[in-house]
Amino acid sequence: MREQIKLYLCNEEGQRFFGEGPYQLLRCIERCGSLRSAAQEMNMAYTKAFHLIRHAEEELGFPLTEKTIGGTGGGGSRLTAKAKELMTRYEQYKSACARAASQLYDEYFSGFRETASADHRTKTDR
């Protein structure tokens, strides 16, 4: 038994708009240089990737990517400074939440499984 935390940023209505999926997509855009290539690498439909990014941008109120059109080497996308800041903050928040979850798990569940197993054996031995 172990703890596992899933992290999402939600709007005021409680609807998710940013989490591990969009975060990984941004990392992939940064590495690949385009949304289309990132979507392909993640085995995701381009339209889904596009909508994930646009939805996050609408909720956050700032652009996450800047597009370049055509030219030598073709077009592409790169992350904005705010997107990079968001990713850094998300990584830090995720790490802090994981540390806190681990500490709380230890506080509330340390030895619980062994105790529960011993109780079960005692009852079945009667």
Automatic annotation (TrEMBL):
Residue span(s) of domain HTH lysR-type: 24-82
Pfam families linked to this entry: HTH_1 (PF00126)
UniProt-recorded name of the protein: LysR family transcriptional regulator
InterPro entries per record: LysR_HTH_N, Molybdate_resp_trans_reg, WH-like_DNA-bd_sf, WH_DNA-bd_sf
Superkingdom classification of source: Bacteria
Range of residues in the leader sequence: none
